[in-house]
Amino acid sequence: MSETPEITPDGRYLVVDGRRWRATDPAIPEERRAELTRILMAWRRDVRRTRGTDEEPTTRAGVQAAKVALGERGTPWWEQTDDERRARWSADVPVPPDR
């Protein structure tokens, strides 16, 4: 059974094995967060599949786009206005092609 990661008191980071990772933007509506998480996991599977091939940069760009939409990369969500945050998570995020 996996443990729930520690969250910093300000809610901005998860702590896993002593390392801080930026938390997903808590303002993202649950349905959109779940969709973006599914997209992210699909891209991560593609990264493993394409490692060392000409397709790898494209799959890594997909991971980056999903993580930015989730607020885990790019401008920190706590430094964005509500409108900027909404625009970030509402933007189109590419999905990996069906294989």
Description:
The protein has 99 residues and is mainly α. Helices cover 45% and strands 10% of the residues. The chain has helices at residues 30-50, 56-70, 82-90, and strands at 6-7, 13-16, 19-22. A hairpin with a 5-residue loop joins strand 1 and strand 2. 16% of the residues are buried. This is Biopolymer transporter Tol. Residues 69-99 are annotated as: Disordered.
How does the SSE layout of this entry go?
Layout (H helix, E strand, L loop, with lengths): L5 E2 L5 E4 L2 E4 L7 H21 L5 H15 L11 H9 L9
Antiparallel strand pairs: 1-2, 2-3
Helix pairs in contact: 1-2
Organism: Nocardioides conyzicola
Protein name: Biopolymer transporter Tol
Fill in the keyword field for this structure.
mainly alpha, 3-stranded antiparallel sheet, 3 helices, globular, Biopolymer transporter Tol
Secondary-structure-based class equals mainly alpha
* Number of DSSP helical runs: 3
The description of the largest β-sheet is:
3 strands, antiparallel
Strand content: 5-15%
**End-to-end span in angstroms?**
31 Å
The rough form would be described as: globular
Please give the radius of gyration in angstroms. Answer: 14 Å
Low-pLDDT residue intervals, each spanning 5 or more residues: none
Number of strands: 3
Helix and strand string, N-terminal first? Answer: EEEHHH
Helix content: 40-55%
Spatially, the strands of the biggest sheet line up as 1-2-3
What value does the average pLDDT take?
A: 95
Organism: Nocardioides conyzicola
Protein name: Biopolymer transporter Tol
Region (Disordered): 69-99
